[in-house]
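S1.2 Input.
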Amino acid sequence: MKPRHLFSDHRAKKIVALLLCIVFILSTATLTIYSAEHPDIHSPRAILMDEVTGEIIYEKNAYYPTYPASTTKVLTAIVVLENTALDEMVHIDYEPGVAGASMFILPGESFTVETLLKALLIRSGNDVAEVLARHVSGSVEAFVDEMNEKAIEIGAKNTHFTNPHGLPDEDHITTAYDLAIISRYAMQNPVFREIVSSPSLIIPETLETPEQRIYNNSNRFLWGKGPSHRILYRDALVDIYSPRVDGIKTGYTNAAQHCLISSASDDGRRVIAVILNADRENLYSDSRTLLDYGLDSYQLVTLTDEKMLAASVTIQHGTRETLSLFTEKAIHTIIPSHVSTGNITQVIEAADSYVAPIESHQVLGKAVYYHENQILGETNLIAMESVEYLPLYRRIPVFVVLIGAVLISFVLWHIHLFRLRKRKRKMYSRKRMERYQ
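S1.3 Output.
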């Protein structure tokens, strides 16, 4: 006889499937609010980052090492900006023999560092990259060492450069993520921001080059209008030019294909998109898809500013009875545009009281910010002033001391009276004894 089952196999499978579905829905219910529908792009490697918070909004193979082409020059510009003055003169007494995009520098010409930086980032001159490298560090090799050190300092994880311009080399690699954080760092520099947002560059004539050098920015987001500068975007042919875009850097080699780091800002927000190894027809459309998605689908929220009053706690055995706690740093985050900021809650994690001494800037707890069950951010709570330990005798109130003094005086006075009476009784007893002897 076959064993009797409570459910048939078919029915059991249906129930198990239903239970798994319910568990999945419950486990993801608090997360779906923060995952707006991701855009669809064709490029093989990409990332979208919020410039203020550094949060990653979208990524596609963003951590795979690859060739970066001239997007390398963002890091080149950083090292130059942080190691020279803009008005320094650079005299070129040799002919920079570098292939690819060029400013066509000739021996005998002199330019300021500022002019060369503009030619580096707007014209994307490979010869300019070599000239600047030799000016800053004495040799290209020493400059590249500084580039790699700076990349690590910024936070790059998989970047190793062998030249300052990005021409192909099997050891010259980075990732979309690394380029995003390097670009985010660079955009903090106002000179860099101004240069990469410029649609064109005019370099005055020199004795060696008697005509002006006029270059459009290699980034057509900044100026590309008209029939020859159109892309298919949201099922329509539109100009490549976008008023939101304010930088950053293009790149192309046969090995790297088309690369573009772009930034866009609107209503106080800026996002950075990196597209690597793309086909020509997808470069700008994919970049704009990401940039518009980041600006339109998310909002920037300030959870707290730096050093904001957050709580008050009791202090035991100290020179004061209470102490205010303040947030250690400002906390910003991004959330989907449709999420109401009114539902964000602050939870204070701190004890009700602390024992003195307390040092200034000592961490005494933390503030955690939630939307429903999701943590949006947190910061330490610190004391802004110190509290010294107060000895026991100094902690007794004055009126208690006065009352104690009165009581002690009363007791001592009565002891004194008792002793006087006792002495008088002894004297009286002695005199009586002498009288009857």
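S1.4 Remarks. The domain at 45-297 is CATH 3.40.710.10 (Beta-lactamase).
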